[in-house]
Recover the amino acids of this structure.
Protein backbone atom coordinates (compact mmCIF):
# COMPACT_ATOMS: atom_id res chain seq x y z
CA UNK A 1 0.00 0.00 0.00
CA UNK A 2 2.83 2.40 0.87
CA UNK A 3 4.54 1.66 -2.44
CA UNK A 4 1.43 2.44 -4.45
CA UNK A 5 0.94 5.67 -2.50
CA UNK A 6 4.51 6.76 -3.29
CA UNK A 7 4.09 5.80 -6.94
CA UNK A 8 0.84 7.76 -7.22
CA UNK A 9 2.45 10.82 -5.61
CA UNK A 10 5.41 10.58 -8.00
CA UNK A 11 3.04 10.14 -10.94
CA UNK A 12 1.08 13.24 -9.86
CA UNK A 13 4.32 15.22 -9.74
CA UNK A 14 5.17 14.15 -13.31
CA UNK A 15 1.75 14.76 -14.87
CA UNK A 16 1.91 17.45 -17.54
CA UNK A 17 -0.37 20.47 -17.45
CA UNK A 18 -0.82 23.31 -19.88
CA UNK A 19 -0.89 26.94 -18.80
CA UNK A 20 -2.43 29.19 -21.43
CA UNK A 21 -2.46 32.97 -21.11
CA UNK A 22 -5.12 34.59 -23.29
CA UNK A 23 -6.35 38.08 -24.00
CA UNK A 24 -9.74 38.38 -22.29
CA UNK A 25 -11.24 40.63 -24.96
CA UNK A 26 -10.16 38.80 -28.12
CA UNK A 27 -9.49 35.31 -26.69
CA UNK A 28 -6.16 35.37 -28.47
CA UNK A 29 -3.49 33.10 -26.98
CA UNK A 30 -0.60 35.21 -25.76
CA UNK A 31 1.57 32.47 -24.27
CA UNK A 32 1.38 28.73 -23.67
CA UNK A 33 3.45 26.82 -21.11
CA UNK A 34 3.75 23.08 -20.61
CA UNK A 35 4.30 22.48 -16.89
CA UNK A 36 4.34 19.70 -14.33
CA UNK A 37 4.06 20.01 -10.58
CA UNK A 38 7.68 18.94 -10.25
CA UNK A 39 8.90 21.68 -12.61
CA UNK A 40 6.86 24.29 -10.71
CA UNK A 41 8.33 23.14 -7.37
CA UNK A 42 11.84 23.17 -8.81
CA UNK A 43 11.30 26.63 -10.33
CA UNK A 44 10.04 28.15 -7.07
CA UNK A 45 12.82 26.46 -5.09
CA UNK A 46 15.45 27.81 -7.48
CA UNK A 47 14.02 31.32 -7.28
CA UNK A 48 13.94 31.13 -3.48
CA UNK A 49 17.57 29.98 -3.26
CA UNK A 50 18.68 32.70 -5.70
CA UNK A 51 16.83 35.41 -3.75
CA UNK A 52 18.38 34.30 -0.45
CA UNK A 53 21.85 34.16 -2.05
CA UNK A 54 21.48 37.60 -3.60
CA UNK A 55 20.26 39.08 -0.31
CA UNK A 56 23.20 37.62 1.60
CA UNK A 57 25.65 38.85 -1.06
CA UNK A 58 24.07 42.31 -1.07
CA UNK A 59 24.39 42.63 2.69
CA UNK A 60 27.87 41.15 3.06
CA UNK A 61 29.58 42.96 0.17
CA UNK A 62 28.05 46.42 0.51
CA UNK A 63 28.00 49.04 3.29
CA UNK A 64 24.56 47.75 4.31
CA UNK A 65 26.32 45.41 6.73
CA UNK A 66 27.09 48.35 9.03
CA UNK A 67 23.36 48.75 9.69
CA UNK A 68 23.19 45.29 11.28
CA UNK A 69 23.16 45.61 15.09
CA UNK A 70 26.41 44.42 16.68
CA UNK A 71 28.43 44.65 13.48
CA UNK A 72 31.18 47.20 13.30
CA UNK A 73 34.81 47.80 12.45
CA UNK A 74 37.72 47.00 14.70
CA UNK A 75 38.33 50.69 15.25
CA UNK A 76 34.78 51.31 16.44
CA UNK A 77 35.01 48.35 18.83
CA UNK A 78 38.29 49.67 20.26
CA UNK A 79 36.78 53.14 20.62
CA UNK A 80 33.78 51.69 22.40
CA UNK A 81 36.04 49.81 24.83
CA UNK A 82 37.99 53.00 25.56
CA UNK A 83 34.76 54.90 26.19
CA UNK A 84 33.62 52.21 28.63
CA UNK A 85 36.87 52.51 30.58
CA UNK A 86 36.61 56.31 30.67
CA UNK A 87 32.99 56.15 31.80
CA UNK A 88 33.85 53.78 34.64
CA UNK A 89 36.69 55.99 35.86
CA UNK A 90 34.50 59.10 35.69
CA UNK A 91 31.76 57.35 37.67
CA UNK A 92 34.28 56.45 40.37
CA UNK A 93 35.62 60.00 40.48
CA UNK A 94 32.07 61.38 40.87
CA UNK A 95 31.38 58.89 43.64
CA UNK A 96 34.55 59.92 45.52
CA UNK A 97 33.67 63.60 45.09
CA UNK A 98 30.16 63.01 46.44
CA UNK A 99 31.58 61.21 49.48
CA UNK A 100 34.00 64.09 50.09
CA UNK A 101 31.24 66.69 49.83
CA UNK A 102 29.02 64.70 52.22
CA UNK A 103 31.86 64.57 54.74
CA UNK A 104 32.42 68.33 54.43
CA UNK A 105 28.68 68.96 54.96
CA UNK A 106 28.67 66.81 58.09
CA UNK A 107 31.66 68.67 59.50
CA UNK A 108 30.14 72.08 58.76
CA UNK A 109 26.75 71.20 60.24
CA UNK A 110 28.30 69.51 63.26
CA UNK A 111 26.60 66.16 62.72
CA UNK A 112 29.79 64.16 62.50
CA UNK A 113 30.13 61.40 65.04
CA UNK A 114 32.96 62.08 67.42
CA UNK A 115 35.73 59.67 66.80
CA UNK A 116 39.09 59.93 68.35
CA UNK A 117 42.05 58.57 66.60
CA UNK A 118 44.15 58.45 69.77
CA UNK A 119 43.81 56.55 72.99
CA UNK A 120 43.10 58.76 76.01
CA UNK A 121 45.86 58.69 78.61
CA UNK A 122 45.22 58.63 82.31
CA UNK A 123 47.53 61.28 83.75
CA UNK A 124 47.70 61.96 87.45
CA UNK A 125 47.12 65.50 88.50
CA UNK A 126 49.90 66.87 90.62
CA UNK A 127 49.77 69.90 92.72
CA UNK A 128 52.17 72.58 91.93
CA UNK A 129 54.12 73.65 94.94
CA UNK A 130 55.19 77.19 95.31
CA UNK A 131 58.01 77.55 97.86
Amino acid sequence: MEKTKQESTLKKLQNNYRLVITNDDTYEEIATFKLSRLSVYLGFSTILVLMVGLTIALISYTPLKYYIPGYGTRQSKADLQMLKIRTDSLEKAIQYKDQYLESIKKVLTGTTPTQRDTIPLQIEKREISTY
